[in-house]
Amino acid sequence: MKFDKIIHEPARLKIMMILSGVEQADFNFLLTTLALTRGNLSRHMEKLESASYLKISKSFKGKMPNTSYQLTQKGSKALAQYWENLDAVRRLGQA
Amino acid sequence: MNAKQNQASQNTEKLKEIPKLTRKYAQNRTLTILVFMVIIALASMFFAVVISLPYALAIVGFKKENMVLVCVGIAVLIVALVVMVKFYISFLTKFGGKNKGLLDQIIDRRVYGKEGIVSIPLPKLSKKMKHLDIILAIVYGVLLIGSMELGMLGIIPVKYFLPFTALFVVPFGVYQYFIMRPRLGPVILIFPILYTIHTILILAGVPIFFTGFFAIPLNMLLPVVYSFLAYMIGHIYSRYALKRLKGITRFVGDTADEV
Predict the structure, then answer these.
(1) Cβ contacts (< 8 Å) between B249 and chain A: which residues?
(2) What CATH class has A5-88?
(3) What is the pTM of this model?
(4) Of residues A14, A20, A90, nearest to B249 (C-beta)
(5) Interatomic CA distance for residues B184 and B104, integer angstroms
């Protein structure tokens, strides 16, 4: 059984889990919730975006630029599959 | 199962709570609504004072047959009304029509700017439902104003005023929940629940209603108070959900790697 390496990284898994609960969240929300550095979070987001797990939308909130992230269908499926695999491994471990 | 496996298993279960907690947090970000309610209350109070003071001045002048006082009162009243209408028009121009929702956004940014934005969309209503929603809002407004009039005329006794309004306020409150979900969570139901409890207590003989000259307007404040309370509970719950969410995201470590 293979784990999706992109999701398997703990910070990215948490990002995906947060985004799976809502329609979209912005960079600031993820930054404050996950307590990562800006650079670190940016790199994780780039990786998730390059895998087409996230959709990015850039806008202006007043005069400030705002970047929001949304889980794509591919991302949702990958996340569901990841948990399926993980649960299967856990069941094997318990057996 | 050894201790390490047990810990990993617990952490995995905690991670699975993240979407639920994020959703609960987003659904209960009601501080914007609370701030909005306070702004409306303060603006209403301000305009009530601005209108009633010159009006009272003119009445006093009329009673004392002091025409100067009457003229000053009327002049100030006219100026106050013109300013109010001008303010209303400029407000609608800035925040109405195409800019509907802009004020909410501005308040939202001020209130939650540091925390960031997380959103759950408003439910998409079909055209039929949109029309039904507008009709119901009009019916609700007519019933509310109508019952106030009936109450002021004494047709509905003060004791039964709130139970009477509960007949349409409570169903409308429940309907609002079904229309607003999943944008707002079950917190919205606190309002009709409190209203129902209040009504039952009145009918059981508990004197929890205002009497006297301003009985009807004061009793009509009750829905506002209960709405405020419901949104306040929502806000407190959102803080709790965020705290738990941060607790999980920051302290639950490398679960995936542990498994």
Answers:
(1) 14, 18, 33-35
(2) mainly alpha
(3) 0.83
(4) A14
(5) 15
